[in-house]
Amino acid sequence: MFSKVLFASDLSEASTHVIECIKDLKVYGTKEIILFHALGIKYLEDLRYSLVKEAEPVLQKQKAMLERYGYSVTVHIANDGVSYELWKFAKQENVSMVVIGTHGRSLAFDVSLGGTAHKIIHDISKPLLIVRLRSDDKAMPVCQAACIDIDKPLLFTTDFSDTAELAFTYVEKMVESGIKHVVLMHVQDKTRIEKYLKDKLNEFNTIDTERLEMLKDRLVKKGVKNVDCILKYGIPVEEIINESRNRDYSLIIMGALGRSLVKDVFIGSVSWNVVRNASQPVLLIPPLK
């Protein structure tokens, strides 16, 4: 499923914690990892030698860590900013998934990644795993990654769009890889329904309950025994974040863009705000192009 993964490193201690977190990706078929670093010097070529010399010891240390976990590892250093170089190189190498770390609201790690995680997510063209980093001490931050654990439940949120359907196929593959518990969630969007469609809410609930049950049946046929369905009425971001805090989820999976598919309003999208506020890693699946 994710045989070839690109990991974006900013050379920080936080990046090292993310590496420790993703060491178990082998359960999803990962064999090869590209350790990627962007220098951000498109128009400052004279600085490349000194920056590469500074970066290489850290990258080699991170490479050695990944190799100890059993992966085949290559290193790639790009000149331009990460948000541009990452997706270009990911497409060139035909990677299965990209991994980045983020501090969420503080955006501290986002800035050091060279242009904010928002830009990376906005331009998504491959499955993107965002690992949330927690700081124990605000004065002296020591980052700890929220790691993936296949023994914990997985939360899949859907708006029943084409992109959500594509994301669900990854849930099916994860079940085949050993995930034991899946929670399927849909939120009836109060902002869309409240004013003009409230009288149709019961009808919508009936239709969407059937949709969730159909998804559940597909997973049961794949071999998982524990599947829960949740249907809520409210603000999607708020309901998803509240649910993510109600249980000890290992991962949230969702489509990167839902029914609107309008990138210009992405900063206000459900997926972006879930990434900013969830404590769990979030796997975003981009729409087909």
Number of domains: 2
Strand residue percentage: 15-25%
Biggest β-sheet: count, sense, barrel? Answer: 11 strands, mixed
- Radius of gyration of CA atoms, rounded to a whole number: 19 Å
- Output the CATH topology of the largest domain: Rossmann fold
Alpha carbon gap, first and last residue? 19 Å
Helix content: 25-40%
Structural class: alpha/beta
CATH H level of the largest domain: which superfamily?
A: HUPs
Q: Helices and strands, in N-to-C order?
A: EHEHEHEHHEEEHEHHEHEHE
Quaternary state of the chains = single chain
Shape: globular
CATH architectural designation of the largest domain: 3-Layer(aba) Sandwich
CATH class of the largest domain: Alpha Beta
Mean pLDDT: 85
- Low-pLDDT runs of 5+ residues are 104-115, 258-268
Number of helical segments with 4 or more residues: 10
Count of individual beta strands? 11
Can you give keywords for this protein?
single chain, 289 residues, alpha/beta, Rossmann fold, 2 domains, eleven-stranded mixed beta sheet, 10 helices
Word description of this protein:
The chain is 39% helix and 23% strand. The protein contains ten helices and eleven strands. Strands 1, 2, 3, 4, 5, 6, 7, 8, 9, 10 and 11 form an eleven-stranded mixed beta sheet that branches. By secondary structure, the chain is an alpha/beta fold. The protein has helices at 13-21, 48-68, 82-93, 108-112, 117-122, 162-176, 190-193, 201-222, 236-246, 270-277; strands at residues 4-8, 32-38, 72-78, 97-102, 128-135, 143-145, 154-157, 181-189, 226-234, 251-255, 282-285. It folds into two domains: 4-145, Rossmann fold (3-Layer(aba) Sandwich); 154-253, 3-Layer(aba) Sandwich (Rossmann fold). The protein is globular.
